[in-house]
Amino acid sequence: MSSPRVFAARPLVIAALHLPDFGKLRDKSMALLEDYVAINARVFAQAGIPYVKLQDQTREAGAMRASSLAITAALGRFIKSEFPDLGLGIIVEAHDPVAALSIAHAAGADFVRLKVFVGQAMTAQGPRTGMGAEALAFRAGLGREDIAILADVHDRTAVPMSSETAEFAAEWAQKTGADGLILTGADWADSLARIRRARDAGIKRPILLGGSVTEGNVAEALGVCDGVIVSTALMRKDAEPADALRWDIVRARCFMDAARAVR
User: Fold this and answer.
1) Of 119, 104, 94, which is closest to residue 54 (Cα–Cα)?
2) How far is CA 98 from the centre of its chain?
3) What is the spatial distance between Cα 141 and Cα 115, in angstroms, rounded to a whole number?
4) Do strands 180-183 and 148-153 pair parallel, antiparallel, or not at all (unpaired)?
5) Could you tell me the domains of the chain?
């Protein structure tokens, strides 16, 4: 099978659009949520960012609740209908590859991001074990190998519960079947070092850098990896808590100008 479509973008920039925690919303109307994703997805589309990652942030200790799954899938489908040329990815807070892939399937998304794909990690919600085998089996059952799986390797929001190195875990993820890997260190220098060590260890899959990317360092990042995930660097500095518009079109355009300048 050919490489998933997401990796054809040059430069490969994925902007994370964070959803509100559905459990904390006072106004739970779909109209309000659609307005929120539309106004922010439009920023990314107009800035020329090729992919947006719809990020569920509803805290769930176990599987994703049916209500959260349904809302996220509907919002993903809404984004695709409003911005058909904008690529779409899905990530869910719950440790639930079936939910992430089901949402991607229903919404017409291009990829999912899975945080603990191999090994075992301690997270804020407790210990989580590798979901790689379950994810690959469910995707095959859907017949949707075109939905790319981007797997985090030792994500910095969790603590590994075993002693393997990040490059060894990257090899696990590659052999398990991840289409692309996401490496993010404790800081900028650590992120770049992890990517270089993974390449030196023989990792052939596309590698994305998953955090701390800015307009000022995106060129350096794209010099060592295949793509970047960005969100905070594009956010409005003057946004008030009640504002629906969270991302800044000028900052997003400047970021893409810097990314396009890389050859």
Assistant:
1) 104
2) 16
3) 21
4) parallel
5) 7-260 (3.20.20.70)
